[in-house]
Amino acid sequence: MALLGHLLQRLLWALGLLVAVVVLNFLLIQLAPGDPAEVIAGEMGGATEEMLAEIRARYGLDQPLPVQLWRYVSRAARGDLGRSLFFDAPVTTLILERMPATVLLVLSSLLVSVLVGTWLGVLAARNPRGWLSQSITVLALVGYSAPVFWTGILLLLLFALAIPIFPASGMSDVTRELSALGRVLDVLHHLVLPTLTLAIIYLAQYSRLARASMLEVLGMDYIRTARAKGLAEPTVVYKHALRNAILPVVTIAGLQFSQLLSGAVLVETVFNWPGLGRLAFDSILRRDHPVVLGILFCSALLVVVANILTDLCYRLVDPRIRVGGAG
Amino acid sequence: MTRIFRLLILSLAFPALAALAEPKPGGTLVIIDSQVPRHLNPAVQSGTATAVPGTQIFATPLRFDENWNPEPYLAERWEVADDGLSITLHLRQDALFHDGTPVTSADLAFSLQTVKENHPFQTMFAPVNRVETPDVHTAVIHLDRPHPAILLAMSSAMLPVIPEHIYGDGQDPKTHPRNSDPVGSGPFKLVEFKQGEHTILERFDDFFLDGRPYLDRIVIQVVADVSNRVIAMERGDGHLMPFMTTLRDIKRLEALDHLGVTDQGYAAVGPINWLAFNTAKAPFDDVRVRRAVAYAVDREFITKALHLGLSRPATGPIVPDSPFYTDEVATYEVDLDRAQSLLDEAGLIPGEDGTRFSATVDYIPGTPEQQRNLAEYLKSQLARVGIDVQVRAAPDFPTWSNRVANHEFDMTMDTVFNWGDPVIGVHRTYLSDNIRKGVIWSNTQSYSNPRVDEILAEAGVAADPTARGELYGEFQWLVAEDLPVYWINVVPYHTVYHNGLGNVPMSIWGTMAPMDAVYWENPPE
């Protein structure tokens, strides 16, 4: 019952947040210099004033700002995010077409970074002064400091050009006819390098986090008790210690979903991954405001959902929160 | 001895024989493009992104070879009336649209009307009064005044013949849903158009030219990131990459065995990189100041050193590849003393710190080698004659175009296309009645010379090519004296192609022309 009430409260919060996001983004984007009509008409050809006026009228860009805002919000409430100025296509279609690619990339990166990061962190914590721990620390530092696009291009040059074992671009090979299974394998093959690129930064964070948290937990009394009972070391580490040590990782993983989304913008551009990030980047340059707003709205939605899920996960991992209700 | 000799002859002759043999049909061509098309209908959309796929899907009345000669395409033959006031087109009788309906003169008339009303290049068909269709395969275009540019405007992406039964349903052609699902009569038909990702085209089996096209499929893949584009060509994922301008990448790809590189195929695009002056604003309203800047800029250094020898100097408003080009103009060979004395004459005396005056220079973001680097070069070069230049960055294209279109600039780097005939791409930036705030690539320099207006008006309607040439010659000489812009170089567009390809597109329109003759000589494994 407490859970249900809590969930309801979170949902209400989320709704308010989303409305605020829509309104703020709408106002913010008006501050960007440049006129979308000019971009549409101008494309290396120039345009006439009549044409500019016509485009502005067609997309309602000639209306006063409050009118535009009201129209946008009332339409968005009905699930209509407007039409792309550039493609003249519904924004929802454009976004839904690309959403799966981004979600796939972000979730696989999250999975890889959490699993591998935690594992590395645990390894490092078991012998904090050993060479393994040291090298993991160095690796984590390098991974965290290197810019995403640099790591991406480096991986491309290494594993797509020097040793061409992975494809360089896109999510699938459109030039080949493939069976359904072939398609899936093809997508997975394309997924490796972008996932790795995006995971590397977060991997660093998780390994540091897990290491610190593990060290703390391993020093606690109940671990000594477990060892005193004569339990095998792996049981102590993975069953008793990890369960408690992983709490901060879960929290951070949820919070980091939004950062992963912004990291995806760069990775998608470097690897030509057909996702939301690239659409966002291109749309900003094209002053395609409805698409930018739509993507911001959807990523806000994703982040809110991710946070609620994290919250639930947290309760699952830590029974104290489940029972007490007060976090 | 004779046997060895024969063998030698045979081995020498074989490659030559193979080259003469009929091109082999089949295969897929992957084109790597950096530009995203809004849709695929060039009748209502300019730009290279739509033109490359658009010219495969739609056929035009004429097409042009590499020497600017018109060739039959949808029109078997054509006659221009002696007074230049009408053009009769005789269309092929066997041309079909991809949906199986025949191409008729009514479709042509409808297409011309649609382009005239909707295309941003208003000068292409402005003089067209009406199109008469005496029979199903004959169209007579009536003009208000002679309009020699119309032949070129009936090629490439400029007059795609679109089916009236699809696009004439009363919907606004600019936002017609079939613009993204087009039906044309060109050599390839659409299989899939994924916005911002790829366009897949397939051989149209009933194409009106027998045996063409040779390729089975064309896939146009949009790759936004330049490193990724280069890697795609290097790996062999892509086979043809047009409009390449990153110079070190060109050099790098050129060195690879399986790739070739050419700068042919951009004659009609005619891209000029230039420095524009705001002639409405002091001190650039003084021609001496503009000339002083020109004398301070070393085009040789730019093309040979900064551009690694890959670009060519532009000497005037018309590109060297155009039949109307002349080099008989003032060329302003670099001369800093001359620049100094011109500035002295203009009354711009150096202050105590040696500075005569300060000015800003803008540039288009995105192609640093053509734009930003030249702006930086200008800053250091003009400092030597006492002009303090501030390079003004713009975060993106709309910011830059907003400034320039609204005349809020001192000097700016710019890239402007000739688009084949001067009437289409050149007149617009020099005519005094085309000074229109808010419109980019209009006469944003606020340049006005009544004689230039007069010449351009005359050259636009001169039917005789020689007479036209003379008029444009005078025009080029005049604007090089007045210098509303200082032309720096021809943008070094290059096409990178797989060596196994035959008939790589190199006509005046390059990849913005039907690729029905392109074939795989030695397909990649």
Would you spell out the secondary-structure blueprint of this structure?
The complex is a heterodimer of chains A (327) and B (525).
Chain A: H1 2-30, H2 36-42, H3 49-58, H4 65-77, H5 91-126, H6 131-145, H7 148-162, H8 180-218, H9 221-228, H10 233-245, H11 247-271, H12 276-285, H13 289-317, H14 319-324
Helix pairs in contact in A: 1-13, 2-3, 5-6, 5-8, 5-11, 5-13, 6-8, 7-8, 7-11, 8-10, 8-11, 11-12, 11-13, 12-13
Chain B: H1 2-20, E1 28-33, H2 48-57, E2 62-64, E3 70-72, E4 75-80, E5 86-91, H3 105-118, E6 128-135, E7 138-143, H4 150-153, H5 164-167, E8 188-194, E9 198-203, E10 217-222, H6 226-235, E11 240-244, H7 247-254, E12 259-262, E13 271-277, H8 287-296, H9 299-306, E14 312-313, H10 336-345, E15 357-362, H11 372-383, E16 387-392, H12 397-405, E17 411-417, H13 422-425, H14 450-461, H15 465-482, E18 485-490, E19 494-498, E20 501-502, E21 519-520
Parallel strand pairs in B: 1-10, 15-16, 15-17
Antiparallel strand pairs in B: 2-3, 4-5, 5-7, 6-7, 8-9, 9-10, 11-19, 12-19, 13-17, 13-18, 14-18, 20-21
Short description:
The complex is a heterodimer of chains A (327) and B (525). Chain A has helices at 2-30, 36-42, 49-58, 65-77, 91-126, 131-145, 148-162, 180-218, 221-228, 233-245, 247-271, 276-285, 289-317, 319-324. Chain A has 327 residues and is mostly helical.
Mean pLDDT of chain B: 93
Q: Count every helix of chain B, treating DSSP H or I runs of 4 or more residues as helices.
A: 15
Note poorly predicted spans of chain A: 323-327
* Class from helix and strand fractions of chain A: mainly alpha
3D architecture notes:
- The complex is a heterodimer of chains A (327) and B (525).
- In chain A, helix 5 (91-126) packs antiparallel against helix 6.
- Chain A has 327 residues and is mostly helical.
- Chain A has 14 helices and no strands.
- Chain B has a 6-stranded mixed sheet with strand order 14-18-13-17-15-16, covered by helices on one side.
- The relative contact order of chain B is 0.16.
- Chain B contains 15 helices and 21 strands.
- In chain B, 29% of the residues lie in helices and 21% in strands.
- By secondary structure, chain B is an alpha+beta fold.
- Chain B has 2 domains: 3-265 and 494-520, D-Maltodextrin-Binding Protein, domain 2; 271-490, Roll (Dipeptide-binding Protein, domain 3).
- Chain B has helices spanning 2-20, 48-57, 105-118, 150-153, 164-167, 226-235, 247-254, 287-296, 299-306, 336-345, 372-383, 397-405, 422-425, 450-461, 465-482, and strands spanning 28-33, 62-64, 70-72, 75-80, 86-91, 128-135, 138-143, 188-194, 198-203, 217-222, 240-244, 259-262, 271-277, 312-313, 357-362, 387-392, 411-417, 485-490, 494-498, 501-502, 519-520.
- The radius of gyration of chain B is 25 Å and the shape is globular.
- In chain B, strand 15, helix 11 and strand 16 form a beta-alpha-beta unit.
- At the A-B interface, helix 2, helix 3, helix 7, helix 11 and helix 12 of A face strand 10, helix 6 and helix 12 of B.
